[in-house]
């Protein structure tokens, strides 16, 4: 038996016994808390949050303004560090990493979509999508091909040369999604990605995210205020004052996302 629990033949004990093993979650948070400030000004933005998301699954985090959604997503995506608790991407624990290593994991494994789109105004749609590949030093011919594929995938092949201000809100957000996915991340994090869109465009955007998450086996976490958007989720969790509320049975996934406290 090796340290990883495998036999010398590279087989897990469960496989030898014919037991179907649950795949490890792509993203996992364990007892994550985040406090800002101190003393009388201390704010408990997130308290003791545990959850997991598997590849190909979409977890929706729902909660009122100020409930801690952005704080949680920032921690899950390695943009902020928790005050206590751990975050795992596959078998990589994030909170113990140096800033440099964390940046590497962010670049290589995580795609982000922001409510305000976060596009660079002087760049065209294609150039915005290309940014993560340039940062990674991807070969120009490969870059061109991957950007063209992504434009096609989000239905913007005819808008490649347009700058953000020449695109509608929904089109800009599709550029944001294409930019998040062009590096083939394992994890997609979207903080209220439909917040600036009308309800029909928001629904189309969520359909697209759902389709791509499934097709590409990505583990996605999306925060939203919008109750209509939760229909597309495998799991839904509710945040109240930084804490996960008990599930209300709306989730349609194979298991509840929050990990019960042990
Ligand atoms: N950097 C910070 N310093 C101090 N307090 C903060 C900081 N960031 C967030 N907070 C506080 O933490 C709490 C949670 O904020 P957060 O932005 O995570 O909520 P949210 O659910 O994303 O809200 P919204 O839907 O309005 O974006 C709020 O009380 C907020 O004021």
From TrEMBL:
GO molecular function, one term: ATP binding
PANTHER family attached to this UniProt entry: ABC TRANSPORTER RELATED, IMPORT ATP-BINDING PROTEIN
Keyword annotations of the record: ATP-binding, Nucleotide-binding, Transport
Species assigned in the record: Leifsonella bigeumensis
Chain ranges of the ABC transporter domain: 27-261
Domain of life the protein comes from: Bacteria
Descriptive protein name: ABC transporter ATP-binding protein
Database matches in SMART domains: AAA
